[in-house]
């Protein structure tokens, strides 16, 4: 049976600021304009349904990306300094005191503690930052730690180079240098025939690796969690491509401002053991599984199916969707 119409006097609407009162038949207020969820106000700037660790990681990443370099602060005028009062100050290689970070409004809104940051970093998959402790300091004290953005390195500045360019006859050369990248970026690097400078970057940074007598790897830094490592035999690269200038960085890495062509790649290896060897001695051994390539890495669709081919197989189909 159809419900009877309910007439609402115009005076009732005017008294309510132009908004309809609750229906006599359906006991809830009609939505006018924005939904209740969209109009909720509060200190937390993130979706309340989002995992708290992810929310903290995003907030930390946001703040670190906008940190001001100490060298820039020293050159700022008083007016410019007032405009950047809500920004943190970082070292030239991106490190910020954790004690300063935890006082930023975006971080305090989430009730973030040092324990939260250490837990998120230990998980790895949720972390967009890395921590380091001053040698000999209290492991429980906030003042003992520094933090900077990691993995994609959006907030990390150009590496500081030191020493003279490396020579092929040097005795202390690392055996290999490894360029670390993601599953999404690797197909683009492979199709471009070499490792190139990222937009806005001055150098390409590699991790030096030495293979010990027992076959284990020695690296100056902690174990990497990058998706893929592209290996270059450094002495061979110096001998065969003398135009490429390699230099050490203050952080213990190896950097170059030149493109590193595929002809110098010894191998490319995925971190996941079920994927393993992708490239070796000039030949593609395996492709990155389609589900890991990301939206822009599948190449042009062909008869309803996306495929990626190296430039050597079919140059017409290797363009990626960007």
From TrEMBL:
Gene Ontology terms describing biological process: tRNA splicing, via endonucleolytic cleavage and ligation
MF terms in GO: tRNA 2'-phosphotransferase activity
Ranges annotated as biased composition (Basic residues): 295-308
Cross-referenced InterPro entries: Ptrans_KptA/Tpt1 (IPR002745)
Top-level taxon: Eukaryota
Chain intervals with Acidic residues compositional bias: 72-84
Disordered: annotated span: 71-92, 288-322
Protein's name in the database: tRNA 2'-phosphotransferase 1
Originating species: Neoarthrinium moseri
